[in-house]
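[agent] plan:
  1. take the single chain provided in the ticket
  2. run structure prediction with default settings
  3. attach structure tokens to the ticket
  4. add a short note for the reviewer (M.T.)
[agent] executing step 1
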Amino acid sequence: LTALATPPQATAFSSTTCDNDQHIAMPRVVRRTLVALLLLRPVSPLKKTPTKAQQDDRLRPLDGSCFAFARAGEFWGYEWCHRRWVKQFQAAWAVPPGERRQETTVGTFSPALTARLRGNVTEHAFSDGERCGRRGTKRRATVRLRCCSERRGEGSSGRNVYIADVQEPATCAYVVEVCARLACETPEERRKFGGG
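[agent] step 2 finished; step 3 output follows
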């Protein structure tokens, strides 16, 4: 306190009141710098990641909707029905005349296993699909719903929602990448996504 009372240089001090009614003595130069720094901070709040419940509510209009994905020249195509199932079907060109197309249930929606939200990506689990080959394990899928900034799916249906890609990283375990305008949080993201 003695040093503050008799500073080595002639520095003017002022008293500042904090939120808890305590007084702090600080040089006016420092006080002006602090005020200037406070004025320079960004005004826009930081972008918050939505909770799983908020994202699920945002995607609720998709309930019961189905979308197909088939790449040109590939034997299998895929159908995803939001919160219902993922199926694999034989491409139309691969079905011999007079025969029915093959169809396999990859998995049905499993709310108990669907508990992940990574950033703006909602992951839904689809389990208990049909048995897979000789191993007998059941097929399963993870559907990742996200806001996409550009059109990526060349073999999909839908304008505001589409399947961008389907991969099989492990035998009978599929990852379905879905782009959905409803997953976009800001007007800028929706504008980049397009649709309407």
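[agent] step 4 note for reviewer: The longest helix spans residues 28-40.
[agent] ticket updated
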